[in-house]
Amino acid sequence: MSIFTHPIYKIMSKSLSPQKLNSCIVINSLVYFLIAYYFVIISFNLFSMILAKSIGFEVELFYYGFTHAGQEWTRVDTILVFFLGNAFTLVLAMIFERLYRKQRRYAKGIKMLFLWIYLIAIIWFLGNIIVGAFFNFGIGAAIRAYRIPFFLRLLFAMASVFALFYLGRNAQKHVTVSANLYFPKLLGRDTGSYFIHIIALPILLGLLVIVLLKLPNIARYQYMDLYILFTVVFFLAGLFFRYQSYGSLTFKTHGPDKYKIKKSNCNISYIPLVILILILAAVRIGLMNGVPI
Q1: Contact indicator for 104, 176 with CB cutoff of 8 Å
Q2: Sign of the torsion angle spanned by Cα atoms 22, 35, 179, 183
Q3: Domains of the chain by residue range
Q4: Torsions phi, psi of 259, nearest 5?
Q5: What residues contact 195, with CB distance under 8 A and at least 6 apart?
Q6: What is the pLDDT of residue 13?
Q7: How far apart are CA 28 and CA 11, in angstroms?
Q8: CA 146 to chain centre
């Protein structure tokens, strides 16, 4: 049994009002969203830093990203660090989508971490292509190293927008099945509301936290990193596109611990919340002056 789901680590609630139930869902999902975000971004930064270090750059990791110095960029260097580095997030997305697919039928909270890692990683990768089509940032730097003309870059961006929309539409089942954490049955008329509380509001609140934690260096990369995150709107558009096609869904499966939802309920998971607080402190305070590798 995971520490993220064991009842001993939760404050058990009795019958909750719809407002309290929705608030609990938002809080739990927000916690997993932020843990997943920093897992993806720190992993991506460390991988990119290792690539840059291997070709002779001096690199340091800060709470707002990483810096590099020491030599001039060659075409090969640019492609290695900014294309392969970002491609690492695509690999993460593929791994954690697979993990979530295997866990989604179980009423185990950690599956939301897998779902969020998948979503953030794929949005970061495709968002990089969209932003990189217009700016010399991330994958955009690698694209420009090949001197790819603008109209081709525009086609790459349009394909990535379509891919995010398609993946959002395709994620409807992933997100709908996650409701077995809180409901014995998700009514068709409640699907839109559930999508808002489990995905849309945690993203909105999570982006606000991310922006606040980047201060006062939020403009260090001319806001390009934020532009990448804002491409999530294309994913959300796909997620909410014709979501009414899903009817009511009754959940019949449960986890290995025999835990099964018998009535609509939500428990605040405090262990993930404590882990998140430690991560935020480590990122904002521990990386304030930079850590070289």
Answers
A1: no
A2: negative
A3: 21-292
A4: -80, 130
A5: 175, 239, 240, 243
A6: 40
A7: 13
A8: 29
